[in-house]
From TrEMBL:
One Gene Ontology CC term in the entry: cytosol
InterPro entries: Aldolase_class_II_sugar_metab (IPR050197), Aldolase_II/adducin_N (IPR001303), Aldolase_II/adducin_N_sf (IPR036409)
Coiled coil: none
Protein name in the entry: Class II aldolase/adducin N-terminal domain-containing protein
Length: 261
């Protein structure tokens, strides 16, 4: 008979697979990028897929347990995994409350990693050592720890101050306290980047054509202020299950995705 722990883990693996499918359905992940979650009863272990495209993950046989301490598989005979799993391990290692992580190469977001933004940007070039392969991938725990540090404003913080960190010329990573919230943050990071791009382009087109008519208030793109941003973050947290229910139905109704967990 399955233990309560086994039942909870099985349910989370099923949710994880659905999360991978949702992220693909919304084009946050393509053949690359990944979702992970912390083991519900072993906080020093996290789980993510073997080395396949997220849309094709279909059962618990595709899921590997890794140690948070070093990103090595719990079972040494596990199938090959993603080379960038150190992104995930180091975020779980530094921030005990983080339960889920998404890493994406979303084309809507990457431009902001090289064009300047107030969102923290991890520049891997500042952390390369001579022996590192300089292909922008976070291939070891040292680079993963440097990325994880960008989520906090102070070197000793054990809770993240930022939901998202951009990665120069590469993509972004987000973390959250549940799989549902992490998927939501990833989907809306992409959607918000698209909105911001459209706002910036619209603004530039309008005011470059008629600069003399622009008042000071009209001449700037108006972002959420700190209080609006904080309150919106709280609202997003409690409302995360509404889009999740819709997104589950979308991937269930699609012929592409299989979830046998
Ligand atoms: Zn990557």
């Amino acid at each position: 008979m399955a233990s309560q722990e086994d039942i909870v883990l099985k349910s989370m693996i099923r949710k994880f697979i659905t999360g991978c499918h949702i992220l693909h359905y919304h084009r946050v992940l393509d053949a690359y990028g990944h979702l992970s979650f912390r083991h519900p009863s072993k906080p020093d272990v996290f789980l993510m897929s073997r080395y396949i495209a997220p849309a094709t993950i279909s059962s618990d046989r595709d899921v590997i347990e890794y140690y948070v301490s070093n990103a090595e598989p719990v079972d040494p005979n596990s199938p090959p995994g993603y080379s960038e799993r150190c992104i995930h391990s180091e975020i779980y290692r530094r921030y005990p409350d983080v339960q889920s992580v998404v890493h994406s190469h979303s084309e809507a977001v990457v431009p902001y990693s090289i064009s300047g933004t107030r969102t923290p940007v991890f520049d891997i070039a500042e952390h390369f050592q001579p022996d590192d392969i300089k292909d922008m991938l976070v291939r070891n725990t040292r680079l993963g720890a440097a990325l994880a540090a960008c989520f906090a404003d102070t070197p000793t913080a054990t809770s993240p101050d930022h939901a998202v960190v951009l990665m120069r010329g590469h993509g972004f990573t987000t973390q959250a306290s549940s799989i549902e919230e992490c998927v939501l943050r990833a989907v809306y990071t992409q959607q918000n980047a698209s909105i911001q791009t459209t706002a910036l382009l619209t603004h530039a087109a309008h005011f470059s054509a008629a600069p003399a008519r622009a008042t000071d208030a009209q001449a700037e793109v108006k972002y959420l202020d700190e209080e609006e941003s904080q309150a919106s973050g709280v609202m997003t947290k409690w409302s995360a299950y509404r889009p999740w229910g819709l997104w589950c139905r979308e991937v269930e109704a699609s012929g592409l995705y299989v979830n046998q967990a």
